[in-house]
Prior knowledge:
The chain has 299 residues and is of the alpha+beta class. The chain contains eight helices and 15 strands. It has helices spanning 34-52, 60-67, 75-90, 100-110, 121-129, 157-171, 260-270, 275-282; strands at 2-3, 14-20, 23-29, 69-71, 137-139, 142-144, 177-180, 184-187, 196-199, 201-202, 205-206, 211-213, 216-221, 250-257, 289-295. A seven-stranded antiparallel sheet has the order 2-3-7-8-13-14-15, covered by helices on one side. The protein has a three-stranded antiparallel sheet with strand order 1-9-12, with no helix packed on it. Strands 4-6-5 form a three-stranded antiparallel sheet. The model is unreliable at 1-10 (pLDDT under 50).
Amino acid sequence: LATGGLPLGAATPTQWRGIALGADATITLAHPEAARIIARARTEIARLEAVFSLYRSDSALSRLNAAGRIDAPPFELLECLGQCARLHRATGGRFDPTVQPLWALHAAHHAGRSPEGPPPAAALARALAATGWGRLRMDPGEIRLEPGMALTLNGIAQGYVADRVADLLRGMGLDDVLVNTGEFHALGGDPRGGPWQIGIRDGDGLLPGQVALQGGALATSAPHGISFDTAGQAGHILDPLTGHSAPARWKLVTVTAPHAWLADGLSTAFCLMTRDRIDAALAAFPQSALAAIVPGTAL
């Protein structure tokens, strides 16, 4: 995704560019103390990475996966898992953070393998046996996984971080800011007037037109935007019911919602769902909508 063109003017925004949870990130705002405000936001991003990052062995999520349990879990981890439960129910189980064993299997199987292909059926069955949202146990005192289980929050954490940064900036009195941590959360609109204009990019470039965002959030998922194989056929979004990559039904799905965690999670799950099931899931979140859906090669 990309923001629209930013014409020069009296309220020309300041834009920070960096990385959040492994994704390109930006914060765009117009304020005389922009540097101080952005520094606060970057501190918040770093704090949340210590909860959610799978790239850090000392994060709360990595420690949970390594030990199978974590005592006195951070509030943010519990809150995010509660949001995962809502998404799991609304999408008929297609949103399921317990697919991490499947992800690890696919990544290991495809690494350096020639000829490339899906994992063997026996290995896939073992990884599927280690998944299942209903096998996770959590309360304010403890989160516990059954043996062999592991979680990934890559389908929701970027949106969650965008929301938390937006909450921080709102609490500081800002009302026209665009936070992008891989997914977008807009406070108000463009300080030069009108909504923020968000371009949606697929593998072939920007789609025609832009999405106007005046408050609220937007997220995009592309089933084959990242692939395990060099041919780009084994996409990174995995079906928890079959263990296989998302079919090529959709090339790209973009969702708008009041919160970025919701847009992020829905766009991820929708990559695995038919259009009628997508519409049924959206009925559970009436303020959310499809902003774009691009057919793939296997409708």
